[in-house]
Amino acid sequence: MELFPILSQGAASVGGGVALAFIVSLALGLVGLILVYGASAVVVLDGFARVSRRPVWPVLSGVAVALLAGIIGLQWNRPELALQSWEAWRVALMGVLPRSSAGVALAMGVVWGILRYADPARVGVVLQWAVALSLAVFAAARGFPELPLALSGPPGLVALGLWGRRHRQGAGTMGGMERRAWELAIALALGAVAALLPVELRAGLGAMAVGGLVLLGGGVFFGLVPFAVAGLIDMRGSAEWFIAIRYLVARRRQVFISAITAICILGIAAGVWLIVVVLSVMNGFEQTWREEILGNRAHFVVESQAGSFADYPETLERIRRVPGVVAVSPFLDADAMVRGRSGEIYSVRVRGVDPEQVSQVTRLAQDMVSGSLSNLEARGEALPRSDELQGGVAGAPAIVIGNQLASALGVDLGDALVVISPFGGPPTPMGPSPRLTRFRVEGVFRSSFYQFDEAFAYVTLEAAQAFRRSADVIDGVEALTTDHYRSQRVADAVAVDLGYPFETRDWKEFFPAFFQALKTERIMMFILLTMIMVVAAFVIVATLIMMIMEKSGDIAILKAMGAEDSLVERIFALEGTLIGLVGTLLGVVAAVAVTHRLGWIQERIENLTGVDTLPASIYQFSSLPSRLDPLQVGGVALIAMVLSLGATLLPSRQGARIDPAEGLRHD
Fold first, then answer.
1. Does residue 278 sit in the same domain as residue 344?
2. Range of the domain at 351
3. What are the pLDDT digits (tens) for 644-656?
4. In terms of Cα–Cα distance, which of 532, 495, 507 is closest to 636?
């Protein structure tokens, strides 16, 4: 009988080890793919940039990149512009356009000098060393030296294998692939040595590595991409363009290759489409929940580190004068319990508010399903004593509760509600007894958060102060700003103006775990769905290799006629680029169309299956929310193009190395 638990425990241990090894291998594989495809894409772009001839296209491409950089910068640094008019967007864009144009011009000048005077092979070696060494130093500086060491293993094994084959064949000269593999392995291993340095020096090297990667990325995007786009435009009508199109749209005997080309395009399109749609739906959920949170809470809260504070009218006025603050509302909280008709007890947070001011900073007035928030003030008389609880509710103060709490207690408008304070009652041998107070239900609200509807109750400030038996004090101030994106900046300005002991809390600090969970889930879904595009990129590699094998005779004839290796490389690089470009465009168009018709698609699925895909009783809404983020769409399209470009380097180099005599041997 004891054998089964032992076997089960052993299997669980083995399974945990296998799962951990798989996760580590997956992470290392992703990092390796980023390095390989990213470096390969830069090499391909360099090849396109070197055929740019007419200056008008680099200039126009540079202007487009500068405009795009300005838009991305505004979207990243000033998200509040999403809530403003197009005129505000135009004014802000015109303000950042000179700086982005200057940055693009500087980057293009540096890249032009490299393209004109530097050898392409030497540029590739320097780029590989810089990227590998920077990533290794950054990982080691962050305390993960094992990551670059593990990444140096695969290229080291490849280099050893090529070295062994070279010695078996008796060749004395090291090939280009073997040299690159050794260089990559050595660069990664050298970067891991940074972990042995002192902490201060290690932090500085890590910052320098990040700065180097940012400079390289900026140089590629702002400087190399405009020249590469210009080179692609200049290649129209050239021999490379004509041959690439003919090979992609093959006829008769090469129909199989055309079918695989279509599969590559559909794979890239499906990956882009799925990622954009899933991210848009997750953005929609996040926006919906954020709006609901902001509807029940103000943009930020001002509190005192000393606890409750008096003389709050002056504090309210000082907060109102801070630029960006629209409205304020004081509040006073009290922890209590409520007793239902059958004697059941529920915990509740009684919040004293000003009915007029609280409706300006929250949606409490709009969330009322019965009664009115103004009834709080109309019935805010003095509290009755505990010995009057058996009487009526004519003189009792008003209270507004959530619909979940009202349903659990079985109370409605006009009913009495006994609120129990844990302290303040008559003394007993066991300590102070609870104090009971009778309120009259004058309103029921329903928000989109179950936690609010079952745990919050609202009374007037005077009633809350009397319930807590406190002076004319408040616990804090809720404030509304012009837009929630800038609420943290406004809150910081309020904290500086008020000084000690006041502090502020932004709305994001109330539910940090919730928003972090959404962010983590979005990142994981993005990584997993990106694998679709990675598979499609591998299919591009296989397609180009098969095409090269099929067209080896044609390539041999071209080289016999005087075609250079770079021309052959550009033919197949252009094929992969066109596959990626068409697939990315199709995916983006399909994603935008599906995202805007999600409601219609959901309705058809529910009618077909008879299943409520999004029960309103659980999710608080019945239709899938969605929000397209231009930055995310652009990022997904960029990744698709990097994978497509990177997938073309190996096959194009293989095709360029075909010997004319060997290629024509069987023709």
1. no
2. 298-505
3. 888 888 888 888 7
4. 532
